[in-house]
UniProtKB/TrEMBL annotation:
<protein>
    <submittedName>
        <fullName>Ribosomal L7Ae/L30e/S12e/Gadd45 family protein</fullName>
    </submittedName>
</protein>
<dbReference type="InterPro" id="IPR029064">
    <property type="entry name" value="Ribosomal_eL30-like_sf"/>
</dbReference>
<dbReference type="InterPro" id="IPR004038">
    <property type="entry name" value="Ribosomal_eL8/eL30/eS12/Gad45"/>
</dbReference>
<feature type="domain" description="Ribosomal protein eL8/eL30/eS12/Gadd45">
    <location>
        <begin position="7"/>
        <end position="82"/>
    </location>
</feature>
<dbReference type="Pfam" id="PF01248">
    <property type="entry name" value="Ribosomal_L7Ae"/>
</dbReference>
Length: 83
């Protein structure tokens, strides 16, 4: 899975709420969404990314995405704010 952008990002958001806020503010460059995340949590993120033309990368799991974000818990979504 291509986590390079996320790992090297100078600024990023972690979690569905923070990611959604960053997208709404026009700050998100790339969004990562875990494949095993609850659909009701990530569906609004998918929709707004599609409407704004933001690239979405599917992460293999919430555990892997959390690890790529540098946290010890699972994570449904994350966004790169500044590369």
């Amino acid at each position: 899975m291509a986590y390079e952008l996320l790992l090297s990002a100078r600024k990023k958001t972690v979690g569905a709420k923070q990611t959604l806020k960053a997208i709404e503010r026009g700050q998100a460059k790339v969004v990562y969404i875990a494949q095993n995340a609850d659909k009701h949590v990530v569906e609004p993120i998918f929709r707004i990314c599609a409407s704004k033309g933001i690239r979405v990368i599917q992460a293999e799991s919430m555990q892997a995405l959390g690890k790529a974000c540098g946290i010890e818990v699972r994570c449904a979504s994350a966004a790169v704010i500044e590369e």
